[in-house]
Design brief:
Bound molecules: flavin mononucleotide
Shape: elongated
Radius of gyration: 20 Å
Number of helices: 6
Number of domains: 1
Helix content: 25-40%
Distance between the termini: 21 Å
CATH architecture: Roll
CATH class: Mainly Beta
Number of strands: 9
CATH topology: Pnp Oxidase, Chain A
Structural class: alpha+beta
Order of helices and strands: HHEEEEHEEHHHEEE
Length: 214
C-alpha cells in the first residue's frame, strides 16, 4: 500500500519544478503570493481556504477553515465574528497558525504569527462588498453559540431581513484579522518523499531563511 501511494505520488508528479531556493527572494510574501496565484490559475478547489489554529481557552488547539480574503504586505487577512470561539481565543492569546494545503499541487504552507484586528474602515469596505444575504447572515449568526434549533436561526434571519431590507450595516462584532507572520514554512512535494521545506523566520526585523529535513 505504502509503495502504491509512493508510485501514485511520483507518477502524477508533473509539478516538480526543481529546487525551491531558485524561486524565493529574501522575504516570504513574494513566494506566498506566487503560490496563491498559481493555486488559483491551476484551478485547485478552494484555493484560498486555510485552517486557522488558535489556542482555546481550554488549553487545546482549535482548528477551523476560513477564507484568506486579502494578502497585504504585512500578511494575510481573514474575516470572521470577533465574538466567536476563535475571536475569544485570539483575544486571550493572539498567537495563531494558518495552514494551507493544495493536494493537486503537493504544496503546504504554514504561517505562524499573531492575529490583530484590521482597521474598521477595512472591515466596512469588505463587508459592504458582500451579497445582501451574507450581510444578513453575519448579523443572524451568533457564531459559535449553542443554537436551540434551525428555526431559531431562520426566525432571526426573517426579522433582520425586515429590519434591513436594503442597506445592511456591518455588525460591530464582525471584521477582519491580519495574521502578522513571524514564521512561514513552504512545503513542496518532491520525488521519493525528499520534499522541500523552506522556512522564513523573522529575527530582529529581518527574515532568516533555512531548509528543514522533510
Ligand atoms: C470552506 C470554508 C470556508 C469558511 N470560511 C469562513 C470564514 O471566512 N470566516 C469564518 O468565520 N468562518 C468560515 N468558515 C466556518 C469556520 O470553519 C467555523 O465553522 C466558524 O468560523 C466557527 O468557528 P469557531 O466556532 O471556532 O470560532 C468556513 C468553513 C469552510 C468549510
Amino acid at each position: 500500500m505504502e509503495e502504491f501511494l509512493d508510485l501514485l505520488r511520483n507518477d502524477h508528479h508533473s509539478f516538480d519544478q526543481g529546487k525551491l531556493e531558485d524561486h524565493i527572494g529574501n522575504e516570504p510574501f513574494t513566494l506566498l503570493a506566487k503560490w496563491l496565484r498559481e493555486a488559483i490559475e491551476k484551478q485547485v478547489s478552494e484555493p484560498n481556504a486555510m485552517s486557522i489554529s488558535t489556542i482555546g481557552l481550554d488549553g487545546f488547539p482549535h482548528a477551523r477553515i476560513v477564507y484568506l480574503k486579502e494578502l497585504l504586505e504585512d500578511g494575510p487577512i481573514f474575516y470572521t465574528n470577533y465574538a466567536s470561539d476563535k475571536g475569544k481565543s485570539i483575544e486571550a492569546n493572539p498567537n495563531i497558525q494558518a495552514l494551507i494545503f493544495w493536494p493537486g499541487l503537493e504544496r503546504q504552507i504554514r504561517i505562524m504569527g499573531t492575529a490583530e484586528k484590521v482597521p474598521e474602515e477595512m472591515s466596512d469596505t469588505y463587508f459592504q462588498s458582500r451579497p445582501w444575504g451574507s450581510k444578513i447572515g453575519a448579523w443572524a449568526s451568533h457564531q459559535s453559540e449553542v443554537l436551540a434549533s434551525r428555526e431559531e436561526l431562520e426566525e432571526r434571519v426573517h426579522e433582520l431581513a425586515l429590519k434591513y431590507p436594503v442597506e445592511v450595516p456591518r455588525p460591530p462584532h464582525w471584521g477582519g484579522y491580519l495574521l502578522r507572520p513571524i514564521q512561514i514554512e513552504f512545503w513542496q512535494g518532491r520525488r521519493s518523499r525528499l520534499h522541500d521545506r523552506i522556512v522564513f523566520e523573522l529575527e530582529e526585523g529581518s527574515w532568516k531563511i533555512y531548509r528543514k529535513n522533510p
